[in-house]
Amino acid sequence: MGYYASWATGSGLPPSSIDASLLTHLNYAFADISSQNKLVLANPTTDRNNFKGLRSLKEANPHLVTLISVGGWDYSTNFSSAASTASSRATFAQSCVDFIVEHGFDGVDLDWEFPSASDRKNFTLLLREVRSKLDELSAKNGRPYYLTIAGAPNRSFLNNIEPQAVASLVDYIFLMGYDMHGPWDNYADLTAPLYPANEDSPHYANSVSEAVQLYLNAGVSASKIVLGMPLYGYRYSVYDGRDDGLFGSFSSAKSIGFDLIKKNYLSDSSFDQYYHSDARVPYLFDGETFISYDDEDSVAEKASYARSKGLAGIGAWELSHNKNFQLLKSARRALLNS
């Protein structure tokens, strides 16, 4: 599956340019939640134009399942309110059904960033209400409607939900296997290491494989987990540290899509290219700029890992970061041919 963001058209990837043959599911990011606990358009003009394009894409590719993704980092403010009472949950769930019927989606993806400990039971109750409404719609129309969530790759997220109950209500959980490190940290580090970097480090350690194991240990079936991968990395301005830049202190950092990494840095001879033998991901360094990212080899290895663990599949954030889909193609080949 792949996330397609509302701003992707503006960055050069309209819905008509999506290679739907590479996807089974596409999540449109993001819808908002109003103060009345209803699912609403976040960017009405842009969203409506994109929805029209997605409906045309579905007509040409009948296999493609599209879901409206709710929340994300910018639009999760009202999730707690929507989940808080039976009345608010019913309002939200009915608005989800109304939304997908109006705009031609096949389901809803809840990307709550992030529930707190006080939301733990209410999150389950919210999902149960949405699931019930979608099941009613399925019975009425004689076709399936889907409910999914996005989950953070850490123990604190799992502690703030009821993992087994949640997993029983959703079709799958998109495990966000990225942002293991980033601009919020003190040191330049790897964005999405598949395995732990077994070396001395001033940093906290984590990895995709450890995150998957956390979910499995929490009682989530492997068949409910979709392993999410980044089509982007982070670029750090490093001012001290090792010769390869890893674990260096930095003055600034920001995200950068794979297309820009390839265009501006992979062809620049001033950058040395590295591949971490433990973590199984690449990085670049020129003495000042450190870039952690994923390439065709690393996403393929992650896809093979997902298959070896019996996971439901693989996914990516976000499609417009790699407009010719070379990373998705590489991951898909590995998933299907392993």
Automatic annotation (TrEMBL):
Domain GH18: 1-338
An example Gene Ontology molecular-function term: endochitinase activity
Stored SMART domains: Glyco_18 (SM00636)
Enzyme class label: hydrolase
Keywords: Carbohydrate metabolism, Chitin degradation, Glycosidase, Hydrolase, Polysaccharide degradation
Catalytic activity: Random endo-hydrolysis of N-acetyl-beta-D-glucosaminide (1->4)-beta-linkages in chitin and chitodextrins
Gene3D superfamilies listed in its UniProt record: 3.10.50.10, Glycosidases (3.20.20.80)
GO terms under biological process: carbohydrate metabolic process; chitin catabolic process
Listed EC numbers: 3.2.1.14
CDD domains the record matches: GH18_chitinase
Coiled coil: none
Family: Belongs to the glycosyl hydrolase 18 family.
PANTHER family, sorted: CHITINASE (PTHR11177), CHITINASE 12-RELATED (PTHR11177:SF317)
Name of the protein described by the UniProt record: chitinase
Organism: Ligaoa zhengdingensis
